[in-house]
Specification:
This protein is of the alpha/beta class. 49% of the residues lie in helices and 19% in strands. Bound molecules: (2S)-2-hydroxybutanedioic acid. The site of (2S)-2-hydroxybutanedioic acid has 9 residues, from loops.
């Protein structure tokens, strides 16, 4: 009898242990923080690099123990070619490609690539925060992407491995690296140059080895990637914009617990304000740092020369007006006033 009792007792203990073994991992899983991988292609000492780190700090502060943000800069995790795909596959949760890199998902964002569209970054700000700019954030939802905000880098400058870079004739026949954008391709074709789409991480080597003669970028990218070491002249043209959209996977975002999503949205809003405030200071400081190295000559194009660049690039607008929509172009122009 005693023996029967004790074996029943043993079976009960065993069942209890088994139940606990099943319950434990579940409770442990429930306590695991949500891991948010934020991948980008630039260095940490850039507007985007700083914005990503600020977002991590704010998100983890607002949601202690609930989220862990892992930032991967400098194409460490995914480069240009793969990051959008990786986001859609759920291999990464946040990326911030430049607005030039969404061609495959929407034609509307091409508006931002039109040369000489915005007078300055304040005009860009007005357009992005207005109804049309905000509507563009959700314009790719049917493709599985949601924009959480715009981050500035700044205006692009033109650089080449030649001593003279003052007027459009100086780039005729030269090979230029461009981002994956049809508008930028048309822009360089309009100048009589040969554009070549290329991932950001490959540009330094391509310039160094002469695969391409030049490129266009912001001061912060030219400085942090050391392009000035392998270019002779940088012309200060401010001819176009390089800004970002921070995007996430729509399904992942919608599936987050409501309190987490709302705290992350707040963190993004604050990180956006922080990064956008920093952007022009970083670019100005980097321009000065490049000048101080004495490695590439900085040439400030004058008013007459600028008019020639503008005129040469003008045909691009007509070519893309149909895809972009006249309403968006007009809205952007209105932001200049
Ligand atoms: C580029 O490819 O030149 C830029 O879009 C890189 C970046 O993210 O600023």
């Amino acid at each position: 009898m005693n023996c029967i009792k004790s074996s029943r007792w043993l079976r009960m203990v065993a069942a209890g242990i088994a139940a606990a073994a099943v319950a434990l991992p579940l409770s442990a899983i429930a306590q695991q923080p949500i891991v948010i991988k934020f991948s980008h292609v630039v260095a940490e000492n850039t507007p985007k690099g700083q914005g990503a780190l600020k977002f991590k700090e704010l998100a983890e502060k607002k949601l202690p123990g609930k989220v862990q943000v892992q930032v991967f800069p400098s194409s460490q995790l995914f480069g240009d070619a793969k990051e959008l795909e990786a986001l859609l596959l759920g291999d990464v949760q946040l990326i911030a490609p430049s607005l030039s890199k969404f061609d495959r998902y929407t034609k509307k964002l091409q508006v931002y690539d039109l040369p000489f569209l915005f007078d300055d970054i304040e005009a860009v700000d007005r357009f992005q925060s207005g109804p049309q700019g905000q509507a563009l954030l959700t314009s790719m939802k049917n493709r599985g992407l949601v924009g959480l905000g715009y981050w500035h880098n700044g205006m692009k400058q033109l650089s080449s491995n030649k001593d003279k870079l003052a007027v459009p004739d100086d780039v005729k026949g030269l090979k230029f690296r461009i981002q994956a954008s049809d508008v930028l391709e048309a822009q360089f074709r309009a100048l009589g140059s040969n554009p070549q789409k290329m991932a950001f991480s490959e540009v330094y080597q391509a310039l160094q080895t002469g695969v391409v003669d030049g490129q266009e970028n912001t001061w912060s990218n030219i400085y942090s990637q050391k392009f000035y070491e392998v270019q002779k002249t940088i012309a200060e043209t401010n001819h176009g914009l390089l800004d970002y959209m921070v995007v996430t996977n729509a399904k992942w975002w919608d599936g987050l617990p409501a309190d987490v999503r709302s705290a992350l949205a707040d963190a993004m809003k604050e990180a956006t304000a922080y990064a956008n405030k920093l952007a022009s200071d970083i670019n100005e400081a980097d321009k000065k740092k490049i000048a101080d190295t004495g490695k590439a000559k900085i040439y400030k194009v004058n008013k007459q020369e600028l008019a020639l660049w503008r005129k040469s690039m003008e045909p691009v607008w007509k070519k893309f007006e149909g895809d972009i929509g006249r309403d968006l172009i007009d809205g952007a122009l209105k932001a200049n006033q």
